[in-house]
Design a protein that fits this description.
This protein has 314 residues and is α+β, with helices and mostly antiparallel strands. It has three domains: 64 residues, RNA-binding S4 domain (Structural Genomics Hypothetical 15.5 Kd Protein In mrcA-pckA Intergenic Region, Chain A), CATH 3.10.290; 94 residues, Pseudouridine synthase (2-Layer Sandwich); 117 residues, Pseudouridine synthase (2-Layer Sandwich). The protein is built from seven helices and 15 strands. The strands form three sheets. Strands 5, 6, 7, 8, 9, 12, 13, 14 and 15 form a nine-stranded mixed sheet that branches. Strand 10 and strand 11 form a beta hairpin. Helix 1 crosses helix 2. The protein is globular, with a radius of gyration of 20 Å.
Length: 314
């Protein structure tokens, strides 16, 4: 099965190289992977094959076809999974901190997908290919919490539609640097890849729409404990948005300070869960795409998060 997508070039995207344009649209694909797809004729501009250095123009209709990954690359692995809900169509998993969601370079095994393949065997949706069976959305390696896993293509398509309409409840808890002048607020700022460092994202006017709501639950000295609600789901959205306000997530190795100077943070940095952003996907709610039942799940704060709160409160 091939995964095919079509993109239309906007006015502000005119002049971008084709491979860089597609990196913005498909952040899971590396630049070399995209260039290989272009060379193989799997990327067409107005139904014509072009070179990787082609400069896109407003109105260009770009079609990318991503071949299904090879099944031999991912093997089932027995591991402990916390499954909080399961029916014949989907499941909800509480992912531990430190676990990568799906295989990628440097993380070929030990991922959530490896465990899902062992637990569910052949009962996973195939829309995202063999490398990401059942995966319709993801959270970062060092973010813990709730994920929905699709067992059928019908459920996968339904959850994808809910995500595209921003019709899924996703509430996170986080600890960030600094105090806020207001108890709650909304960040409406587009996000795109950082040109200087392709592994990072940043707020940029030509990025994709990104909206984050936050509320201060507790002030913890020089830090704040927040409840964060996502309206959109961009890569690193919470981490980028909070850093853009000058309130990076505590422990975040990408967007936080390069060296912790405050005593409480230094104390935490000596613990075995450091570094890594203090972020937990706590609440997940949606209308079941098949049964139409409203489902809502709430994950208890894991031990590492409770340890952080205890240290900061002491």
């Amino acid at each position: 099965m091939m995964n095919e997508k079509v993109f239309l070039v906007k006015e502000e995207e005119t002049g971008m190289r084709l491979d860089l344009f597609l990196m913005e649209k498909e952040p899971d694909l590396t630049r070399s992977r995209i260039q290989n797809l272009i060379r193989d004729g799997l990327v067409l501009v107005e139904d014509a094959q072009v070179k990787t250095g082609y400069k896109v123009k407003e109105g260009d209709r770009i079609r990318i076809t991503i071949p299904e990954a090879k099944p031999a690359d991912v093997l089932p692995q027995e591991m402990s999974l916390t499954i909080v809900y399961e029916d014949e169509h989907l499941a909800v998993v509480d992912k531990p901190r430190g676990m990568v969601v799906h295989p990628a370079a440097g993380h070929e095994d030990g991922t959530l997908v490896n465990g899902l393949m062992y637990h569910f065997k052949d009962s996973l949706s195939g829309i995202n290919g063999i490398m990401r069976p059942g995966i319709v959305h993801r959270i970062d390696k060092d973010t813990s919490g709730l994920l929905v896993i699709c067992k059928t293509d019908e459920a996968h398509q339904g959850i994808s539609e809910l995500l595209s309409r921003h019709d899924i409840d996703r509430v996170y808890h986080a600890v960030v640097h600094g105090k806020f002048k207001q108890p709650e607020g909304t960040i409406d700022a587009p996000i795109g890849r950082m040109k200087e460092d392709r592994k990072k994202y940043t707020v940029r006017p030509d990025g994709r729409e990104a909206i984050t709501h936050f509320k201060v639950l507790e002030e913890l000295g020089s830090f704040s404990y927040l409840e964060i609600t996502l309206e959109t789901g961009r890569t690193h959205q919470i981490r980028v948005h909070m850093a853009s306000l000058g309130h990076p997530l505590l422990g975040d190795p990408l967007y936080g300070p390069s060296r912790e100077t405050l005593s409480k943070a230094k104390e935490l940095s000596r613990m075995d869960f450091w570094p890594g952003q203090i972020l937990h996907a706590k609440v997940l709610g949606f209308v079941h795409p098949v049964t139409k039942e409203k489902l809502m799940f709430d994950s208890e704060l894991p031990d590492y998060f409770q340890t952080v709160l205890r240290v900061l409160r002491s």
